[in-house]
Amino acid sequence: MSVCRTARPSSIARLCRSRFAGMTTAALLTGLAASWLASSATAQLAPQPAAHEPSAPTYPADPAVLERGTELYERQCMMCHGATGRGDGAASYLLYPKPRNFVSGTFRVVSTDNANPSDDDLLGILRMGMPGSAMPPWSHLPESDLHALVAKVRQLLVEGLVAEELADDEDITREEALEYVLEDYMPGPLATIPPPPPEDRIDLAHGAELYAQMCAACHGTAGRADVVVEKFDSEGWPIGARDFTRGIFKGGSRPEDIARRIYLGMPGTPMPALPLQQDELWSLVGHVAGMIEPGAQERVLQSQMTLFARRTHASLTRDPDAAVWSQAEPTPLALMPLWWRDDRPEGVTVQALHDDERLALRLTWSDATRDDLVLDQQAFSDGAAVQLSSDAVPPFFGMGDAMSPVNIWHWHASWQRDQDEGVPMLAQLFRNAPGGPLATAGAPQDPTFSTGTVVGNPVSQVGHRNPVEDLNAQGQGTLSTQPRFGQNAEGAGRWLDGEWSVVFLRAIREPAAGDVVPQPGEGVSIAFAIWDGSAGDRNGVKSVTIWHKLQLED
Length: 554
Description:
By secondary structure, the protein is of the alpha+beta class.
């Protein structure tokens, strides 16, 4: 047995590792003392509901359940969380906050008295996702699949920690290492949280005082996280305080959710446990809840929707302002930045129509700046994309996988500018440059040095007559443009008064190889992405939706 193991009482180690991670030594000692005093006072003064055991953890799991969990994990989760669950998947470099490292044993949202997540905690995250990150909800999966994923996460946690124990101490057996891990990392009983007191004992003015004393230094006096505080999580990544006004709460925004986060803290973050007395706790909860802007939580939560493309007898064109769009039901969809920022496009509204021959999609979203001139190295184009999958169970929503290719239609605001002005932006820039390759708008180029242009690569063209690029992907890093004869998607966009409206138009008969186009009476899975050039969005830095359903009226 290792010396570190025998010299480290697990309860104290867990408290220091999870509840007060990222705090200075002085703050840690103050927090421990305050927690002890508050806990003692709470135990004496606050009514305590009976604690009960959470559902039994899924370890070891039934082999059939674990097999299903492994299948789902490899297809939907591994790209971000990695093959061994250490948060190092192929797409993790694009994400902030970083995907959870299961093997660290530290989870943000817990309800147990030892800071280890119960199966119910893990299921809650799978159902709701993690607002404020790129972790989407998986509530559209069957309950049996969600339980199978929990079993897989639990296995990755245990097996990873056992491997670390064996690497740290070569004198112990696997059975001993497993015993240590199960002792330290299985969930304890459900933590007892003081229940809400009678309404007349909730003092919002006192809640504001408590907030000013305990929370404002990080979250700001108005809850907007507008103070500069350098903090790091337990993995060493920079971490910011939550802006309460935007309603983005990783564990939910109901009063009972907020109370649990205050009382138990956020393991692995600088947010410590604050086990206040009953009246103080709920007075503080009332003050924090009152900061949330109306409808904020609804605008951030993702949930799978069905988009219905009605049949129309009117002419479908690329015009975003065409009268025909009054026939299409608008469906607002929440967006989540893969590299999270609070100043973000919150959502995109989608409409769909078809006329038996063509499918038209209209996307509308707010954008304060029109970014379509990209002649500087730090200038990036606004954009929008539609991703489609014909699989009954679609693959990972970020570019599909080797067994399940996806079709992507990408509208570029910079290409739209070329079309609208009739003169390529490069020709405008270099028109008067003596001896330059674009000395005049129509100057020919030497094909020897313009192979991409000559073979029809749309990215290499001086100008663009169609602002939509038709692409395919079979996983991270495989995005490729369809050949010239396969560029069948077209479209147009218009920016007006801080809003983009973009139409995608596509013939639905005789699709080319790689196309995914539903026929009348059929459906496909569909997802969307938005790029905000002024915010530095480009390539994999973007805001996305989860998979939704698109159904064409028969």
